[in-house]
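Ticket opened by: R.M.
Priority: normal
Category: complex prediction / small molecule

The reporter submitted a protein together with JD8 and asked that the result be attached to this ticket for the collaborator who will pick it up next week. Submitted input follows.
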Amino acid sequence: MRIDLISIFPDYFEALQLSLVGKAIGSGLVDLGVHDLRDWTHDRHRTVDDTPYGGGAGMVMKPEPWGEALDALAPVGGPTPVLVVPTPAGIPFRQSTAIELAQSQWLMFACGRYEGIDARVIDHARTRMQVREVSLGDYVLNGGEVAALAIIEAVVRLVPGVLGNPESLVEESHGDEIDGLLEYPVFTKPASWRGLDVPPVLLSGHHGQVASWRTAEARRITAERRPDLLKADHFGNPIVSE
Ligand code: JD8
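Result attached by the on-call engineer:
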């Protein structure tokens, strides 16, 4: 998978060289390109922003540098990426979005700052490539970089060959494979720590009982913290025990 990132803070993405994504880059499963938007400015102040039409606080990112950057990185007539644009006005990013994006061969992230990117940049890009405006969640960040980092981690770990043991994908929270419940609690040695003991069923070796305990715990925690994830009955009430 090819991933390109465009930002005025390219150093933000040094973190991608670490851990699982770093290994995926090292093994060639992921080909990463990080680009400074200012490389597509032509004035000595390398200006990327200007005042908003219609007034209002803050500054807006100018369309020209973005247009030139996208033309340079995805030349017209050539193969096109899926342009991923993090924005608080985007469609919520979910595990299902990550699974969809992981099918793509080429992702390009347009990371905005200030009050956002001139809307014509996205309208123009839509004329020649798939564009996904996504939001990481209902809170305000100062730019798209952190969202891009989270989205890339969620997507790259789904790329075949990246996860050492793809089995671990099967049981995950929000995983579409199983029932979309939240994670059950996990434990490791020692069996007793500061007077706190691991639930005996987990030491029993009785796989059936362990599985039942884990499912019951996953349901309990989901009902407590995310009833919206639970299947609802005809009246819309969450179905906790099946
Ligand atoms: C991109 C500029 C800052 C946003 C004025 C603060 C995503 N879940 C999310 N929250 N915030 C973002 C996000 C924020 C961004 C940009 C994404 C580009 N900003 C702006 C509008 C209000 N400032 C996000 N994904």
